């Protein structure tokens, strides 16, 4: 019925119901480095200044070198961040969306003490033209803070599918406040089709040879639809699974890699034992989808199944952040022992 079946023992006994912070310092250190963490495009301070001013840039695609080029010329009349000193130290940053995890950011140098910076720099992306045309260019201006608390000064978003590529001239564009869609993370990353089931300890009866002495969570990853197409040939994807707070090798499982397919079928089942019913309130199943390459894997999106309380065994954790859909899916599993619960859940940034 499934391509691969894995059974993993998940040990909860080290997690006390009322732990002291000291006793959990080593466990929580590993929790902070959970797999699949991707920095936001919007890492910084939005509330200090209002977006204003303009930016001059030009776009071009070098067919010979297969290179997308963003020529950032200059900015005018930017907001003043440090009003006491009457200064801003601006730089320009670009991303290709929604594929920010793969392509990474590009940025200009920082110009000190000016609201009219001149850059004359070219930011370059090695990317196939047909892949570029399904992206959007996000160009934003930031004040550089020595302590790392950079301030947002404005942005512009360009739909590259509708861009006039015969226009290679420098043009001025007004900087706008942050876009609500980007801030809320509304970018389509695909949908995961899966089923989950909880088998309470001893619930199958004494006569059943497979009656588990401790509870089990079964996760059946069926398929994923509409993944980001990172290459003209598609994407080489696989799914990772952890049951948090355990990030050890015992918890880690993954599917095989499905090549050149934005709608991969995995049909992969994983079984975690060692679950008591009360552990379901504090655990979280994290499923992440990755693009496989020789040197590094690229995060595509994921889901987290849990109660989304922000707490695990009384300790605040950032991974207990399930959406309403994910929480409802987990709650339905908790209330329907020994039954497969089916769901279609959208992938998101984690």
UniProtKB/TrEMBL annotation:
One GO CC annotation: exocytic vesicle
Sorted UniProt keywords: Cell membrane, Exocytosis, Membrane, Repeat
Source species, domain of life: Eukaryota
Keyword Cytoplasm in annotation: no
Annotated protein name in UniProt: Synaptotagmin-like protein 2
Xref: Gene3D superfamilies: C2 domain
Entries under SUPFAM superfamilies matching the protein: C2 domain (Calcium/lipid-binding domain, CaLB)
Gene: Sytl2_0
Organism listed in the record: Fregata magnificens (Magnificent frigatebird)
């Amino acid at each position: 019925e499934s391509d691969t079946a894995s059974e993993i023992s998940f040990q909860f006994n080290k997690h006390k119901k009322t732990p002291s912070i000291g006793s959990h310092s080593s466990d929580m250190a590993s929790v902070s480095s959970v797999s699949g963490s991707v920095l936001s495009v919007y890492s910084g301070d939005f509330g200090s200044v209002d977006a204003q001013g303009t930016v001059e840039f030009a776009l071009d695609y070098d067919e010979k070198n297969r290179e997308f080029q963003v020529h950032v010329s200059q900015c005018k009349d930017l907001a003043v961040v440090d009003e006491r000193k009457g200064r801003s130290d601006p730089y320009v940053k670009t991303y290709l969306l929604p594929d920010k995890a793969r392509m990474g950011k590009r940025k200009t140098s920082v110009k000190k003490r000016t609201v009219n910076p001149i850059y004359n720099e070219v930011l370059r992306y090695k990317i196939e033209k047909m892949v570029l045309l399904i992206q959007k260019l996000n160009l934003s201006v930031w004040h550089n803070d020595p302590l790392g608390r950079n301030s947002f000064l404005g942005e512009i978003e360009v739909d590259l599918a509708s861009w006039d590529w015969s226009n290679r001239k420098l043009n001025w564009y007004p900087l706008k406040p942050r876009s609500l869609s980007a801030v809320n993370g509304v970018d389509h990353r695909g949908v995961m089709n899966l089923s989950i089931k909880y088998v309470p300890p001893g619930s199958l009866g004494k006569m059943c040879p497979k009656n588990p002495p401790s509870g089990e969570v079964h996760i059946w990853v069926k398929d994923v639809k509409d993944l980001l197409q990172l290459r003209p040939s598609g994407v080489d994807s696989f799914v990772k699974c952890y049951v948090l707070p355990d990030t050890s090798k015992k918890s880690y499982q993954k599917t095989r890699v499905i090549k050149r397919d934005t709608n991969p079928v995995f049909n992969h089942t994983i079984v975690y034992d060692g679950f008591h019913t009360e552990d379901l309130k504090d655990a979280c199943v994290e499923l992440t989808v990755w693009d496989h390459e020789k040197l590094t894997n690229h995060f595509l999106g994921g889901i987290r199944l849990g109660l989304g309380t922000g707490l695990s065994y009384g300790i605040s954790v950032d991974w207990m952040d399930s959406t309403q859909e994910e929480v409802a899916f987990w709650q339905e599993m908790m209330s329907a022992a020994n039954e497969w619960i089916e769901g279609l859940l959208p992938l998101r940034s984690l």
